Amino acid sequence: DQDGSHIKGLIINFIHHNWPSLIKQNFIEEFITPIVKVQKGDRELSFFSLPEYEEWKQSTKDWNAWKVKYYKGLGTSTSKEAREYFGDLLRHKIPFKYAGDDDDKAIELAFSKQKVEDRKTWLMHFMAEKKRRRENNLPD
């Protein structure tokens, strides 16, 4: 969820600031869990982002015939689901790949106290582009 994404960024920044070599050695991995699941009969689909779910809805004529469950953090998952997630690590673990100086600059832009104005500009451009894409029915 959005909180998890923000926390993930804070942890990456903390590690980048204190132990940058861990970032550069691709030491960090993310464990993803669904934020939406849909079920119809014995079929179940998992979505790991809202845009992925919205795309499925757009392409599925009978989407409203499916039972939808939204997940807000790990507390929403059952113990059975947790066992499923940890039983399929290849699907749920995503390694972070360090891509060089551009990654360092992006982390600094997102979190540095000295980059507040640059961050505001970056976010304003991001939101304007997102709005433009939405108004033109383009994917995020």
UniProtKB/TrEMBL annotation:
Gene Ontology molecular function terms on file: ATP binding; DNA binding; DNA topoisomerase type II (double strand cut, ATP-hydrolyzing) activity
Does the UniProt entry include the keyword Cell inner membrane?
Answer: no
Q: Does the keyword Transmembrane apply?
A: no
As recorded in UniProt, its EC number(s) are 5.6.2.2
Q: What class of enzyme is it?
A: isomerase
**What GO biological process terms are annotated to this protein in UniProt?**
DNA topological change; resolution of meiotic recombination intermediates; sister chromatid segregation
Its recorded reaction(s) are:
ATP-dependent breakage, passage and rejoining of double-stranded DNA
Q: May I ask which residue range the UniProt record assigns to the signal sequence?
A: none
Identify which cofactors the protein needs according to its UniProt entry. Answer: Mg(2+)
Protein name in UniProt: DNA topoisomerase (ATP-hydrolyzing)
Organism of origin: Romanomermis culicivorax
One GO CC annotation: nucleus
What are the UniProt keywords, alphabetically? ATP-binding, DNA-binding, Isomerase, Nucleotide-binding, Topoisomerase
The protein's matches in SUPFAM superfamilies, at most eight in alphabetical order, are given as: Type II DNA topoisomerase (SSF56719)
Q: Which residues form the C-terminal associated domain?
A: 31-131
